[in-house]
């Protein structure tokens, strides 16, 4: 049970409430939590990236405007609900889209426009660094952006004195501290999970690789310092307080936790930071995070390695496509009903047809579909063409049709997760699912459990999102017990007693999904032909 409104007001006035702000790709959200770690106020600001000179970016003006607007809207909700002004806080945390590139000179001036994770012109750098380190370095990682700038002989590189991420930039400007949480840092440069900082051997290799450039810096000199969850990462300066709260009400001196990336805050918000746990987010895209007990035996281009905010190694399987094609078919069915003057609510349509899928054959009756609106790196397609294919012998009915489109939404994810679970023997006690695929009770959850062959849980709090996750990290920093780990704090203090549902994989369903994935892989030449023939 949450605390009462009067208690929440007292918590706010006495400065014990905790604030988390996350910069997502389309929304900046501020969440204020009370002493039970549940949200008591929020505010958000919508924004969009811009394509300028073929680079996806957000301007510094938009960054600060969005931060201040989301904070002001949260503060206004506090005034309306509790009749209080925020002057003090127990702690603050900032989170943002991982990766990307923000480079600054000796005068702290941004050298080139912020290059977000969405930019994919770093292919040469990614490939060369992956070979050099024998460690998968994705296109979107910060080190890929830096090295690509070196390869392109960009003039600004010689002037770099500091590079960071969006979350790291905000934190630096509000505290004066050039630091990153370890989860965010693991998307900048590979982490040594034993030392809990950047890999020293890989830093030396990078410096040797770039020595001919005769730069005045070494890589270690320009990277943010790495901190783990629970460490204090500075306090809000007087200048920082004015940047965050333009009304001037907020006082300096508030402690901040290490800035984290959206992957890390997602793990926290779903209580998925302990080893042998993981979470899977399924919406427009789909990705799964599995917390590992040990390092993988070799590198895989399909698997990204990052860490939890506490520093445990995490394998990440990220797929570009999930529900877009499924949603397109649902819109077609909606148009069909409207043609006959039938008014059917979209939520009811989704629920009815999703549940219809459960009546289908476990292997989808021989139907095949690809949901590739865009390319899919796990299956090595640089472009995509949505496809539906069947043979005259296929069992073509509505249940199998719906089931195959649910299956294919997880097809690429299944291939990546099979590498972990079957090739590497990774053990997972459960995955926690969140996102639109799980909205219809029991359907997406069952399909996911059968696909991965791991129990899948869904909790109501999973929808609170990354802003809540970074607020929890800030709360952990100031409220943790002596020697209490992050996973212990989440399990016993935040999520204790939270009701969720867990669904085990069905042996017949798991076998059916394995049969489907064999056909899915066998049919890749069909997808390739569609890409070649349909422009």
Automatic annotation (TrEMBL):
Alphabetically list the UniProt keywords: Kinase, Transferase
Q: Which residues form the Carbohydrate kinase FGGY N-terminal domain?
A: 18-244
InterPro entries to which the protein is assigned, alphabetical: ATPase_NBD (IPR043129), FGGY_C (IPR018485), FGGY_Carb_Kinase (IPR050406), FGGY_N (IPR018484)
Keyword Cell membrane assigned to the entry: answer is: no
According to the entry, every stretch annotated as the Carbohydrate kinase FGGY C-terminal domain falls at: 279-477
A single GO BP annotation from the record?
Answer: carbohydrate metabolic process
GO MF annotations, alphabetized:
kinase activity
Which family does this protein fall into? Belongs to the FGGY kinase family.
Note the PANTHER family from the entry: SUGAR KINASE (PTHR43095), XYLULOSE KINASE (PTHR43095:SF5)
The protein here is known as Sugar (Pentulose or hexulose) kinase
Q: Which organism is it from?
A: Anaerobium acetethylicum
């Amino acid at each position: 049970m949450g605390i009462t409104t009067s208690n929440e007001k007292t918590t706010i006035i006495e400065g014990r409430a905790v604030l988390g702000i996350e910069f997502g790709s389309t929304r900046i959200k501020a969440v204020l939590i009370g002493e039970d770690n549940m949200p008591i106020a929020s505010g958000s600001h919508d924004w969009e990236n811009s394509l300028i000179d073929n680079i996806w970016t957000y301007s510094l003006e938009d960054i600060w405007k969005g931060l201040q607007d989301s904070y002001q809207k949260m503060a206004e909700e506090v005034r309306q609900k509790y009749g209080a002004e925020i002057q003090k806080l127990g702690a603050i945390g900032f989170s943002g889209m991982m990766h990307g590139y923000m480079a600054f000179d000796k005068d702290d001036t941004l050298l080139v426009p912020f290059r977000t994770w969405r930019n994919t012109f770093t292919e040469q750098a990614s490939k060369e660094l992956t070979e050099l380190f024998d460690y998968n370095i994705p296109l979107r990682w910060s080190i890929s952006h830096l090295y690509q700038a070196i390869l392109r002989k960009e003039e600004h590189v010689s002037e770099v004195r500091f590079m960071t991420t969006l979350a790291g930039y905000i934190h630096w400007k509000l505290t004066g501290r050039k630091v990153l949480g370890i989860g965010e840092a693991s998307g900048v440069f590979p982490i040594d999970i034993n030392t809990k900082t950047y890999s020293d051997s890989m830093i030396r290799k990078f410096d040797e690789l770039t020595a001919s450039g005769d730069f005045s810096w070494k890589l270690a000199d320009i990277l943010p310092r790495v901190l783990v969850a629970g460490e204090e990462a500075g306090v809000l300066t007087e200048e920082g307080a004015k940047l965050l709260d333009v009304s001037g009400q907020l006082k300096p001196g508030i402690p901040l936790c290490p800035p984290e990336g959206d992957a890390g805050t997602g793990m926290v918000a779903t209580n998925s930071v302990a080893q042998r746990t993981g979470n899977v987010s399924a919406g427009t895209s789909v990705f799964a995070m599995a917390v590992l007990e040990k390092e993988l035996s070799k590198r895989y281009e399909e698997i990204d390695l990052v860490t939890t905010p506490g520093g445990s190694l995490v394998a990440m399987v990220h797929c570009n496509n999930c529900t877009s094609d499924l949603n397109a078919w649902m819109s077609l069915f909606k148009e069909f009903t409207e043609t006959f003057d039938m008014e059917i609510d979209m939520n009811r349509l989704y629920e009815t047809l999703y549940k219809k899928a459960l009546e289908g054959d476990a292997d989808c009756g021989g139907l095949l579909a690809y949901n590739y609106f865009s390319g899919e790196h796990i299956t090595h397609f640089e472009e995509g063409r949505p496809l539906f294919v069947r043979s005259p012998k296929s069992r073509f009915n509505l249940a199998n049709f719906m089931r195959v489109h649910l299956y294919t939404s997880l097809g690429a994810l299944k291939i990546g997760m099979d590498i972990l679970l079957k090739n590497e023997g990774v053990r997972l006690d459960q995955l926690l699912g969140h996102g639109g695929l799980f909205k219809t009770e029991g359907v997406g959850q069952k399909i996911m459990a059968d696909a991965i062959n791991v129990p899948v849980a869904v909790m109501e709090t999973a929808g609170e999102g990354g802003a809540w996750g970074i607020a929890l990290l800030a709360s952990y920093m100031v409220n943790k017990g002596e020697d209490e780990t992050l996973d212990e704090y989440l399990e016993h203090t935040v999520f204790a007693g939270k009701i969720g549902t867990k669904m085990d994989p069905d042996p017949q369903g798991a076998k059916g999904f394995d049969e489907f994935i064999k056909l899915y892989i066998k049919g890749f030449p069909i997808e390739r032909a569609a890409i070649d023939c349909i422009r």
